[in-house]
Amino acid sequence: MKVFTAAQIYKADTFTIEKQQITSDALMERAATQIFNWMHVRMQGAPVKIHLFCGIGNNGGDGIALARHLFEHGYDIAVYVVKYSDKRSKDFLTNLDRLKDRKIWPIYMDADSDLPEIHPNDIIVDAIFGIGLNRTPDAWVAKIIQHLNTSKAFILSVDIPSGLFTDSVPEDKEAVIKANYVLSFQVPKLVFFLPETGIYVEQWEVLDIGLDAEFLMNEKTDFELISKNEVLQFYRPRTKYSHKGTYGHALIVGGSYGKMGAVILTSRAALKAGSGLVTAYVPECGYAILQTAIPEVMVLTNGKEAIEAIEFDMKPTVIGLGIGMGIHDKTVKALEHFLKANKLPLVLDADALNILSKNQDQMDFIPENSILTPHPKELERLVGKWKDDFEKLEKVRQFTDKRKVVIVVKGAHTITFFEGRGYINTTGNPGMATAGSGDALTGIITGLIAQGYSSLQAAIFGVYIHGKSGDISVENTGYQALIASDIIEGIGSAFLDLFKVPEERPDTSEKDG
Ligand SMILES: NC(=O)C1=CN([C@@H]2O[C@H](COP(=O)(O)OP(=O)(O)OC[C@H]3O[C@@H](n4cnc5c(N)ncnc54)[C@H](OP(=O)(O)O)[C@@H]3O)[C@@H](O)[C@H]2O)[C@@H](O)CC1
Ligand SMILES: [K+]
Question: What ipTM, to 2 d.p.?
Answer without folding.
Answer: 0.98
